[in-house]
Amino acid sequence: MENIKQDNNLKINSDTVLLFDMDRTLIDTDFANFLSYKNAIQSVIMLEKEIEYNPDERFNRTTLKAIFPNLTKTEFEEIVKLKGENYKEHLSQTKLNKSVADILMKYYTTNKTVLVTNCREDRALMTLNYHNLTDKFSNIFFK
Questions:
Q1: Fewer Cβ neighbours under 10 Å: the N or C end of the chain?
Q2: What CATH number belongs to 17-28+95-141?
């Protein structure tokens, strides 16, 4: 859906169910996610080097382990916990994908619209609420 320039070629009628994904599709959350991890890491360990944002790769738990292979289990868990807690501070760094959002806005009143996301419920709802999209979905399925 990301590359859709115009939706007038789509074959959508009132029986069509529209499925959406959130992260990197409907909303670009990568930079906010990175900043959340970066702040959490800085709170738990002393950084010897500055970690850089890579727009081509989503920072996640696997990335965290790869960059910091010597983290203790306690440090790792604390970083993950803090990342989740401070995500709300970075919501302004999330960006709506206009072409996908336009499709949602055009059809949410006439069609069943379903969000299927690998995101945890609390973060997904926080992000959707920030962009005023929560009520645009008939159903939402979280991780």
A1: C
A2: 3.40.50.1000
Please give the DSSP secondary-structure letter assigned to residue 69: T
Transcribe 36-64 into DSSP letters.
HHHHHHHHHS--SS-----TTS---HHHH
Residues lower than pLDDT 50 in the chain? 1-5, 7
- Exposed, middle or buried: residue 11 (CB in 10 Å: 0-12, 13-18, 19+)? exposed
Distance CA 81, CA 86 (A): 9
Predicted confidence (pLDDT) per residue in 21-60, tens digit:
999 999 999 999 999 999 999 999 988 778 999 999 999 9
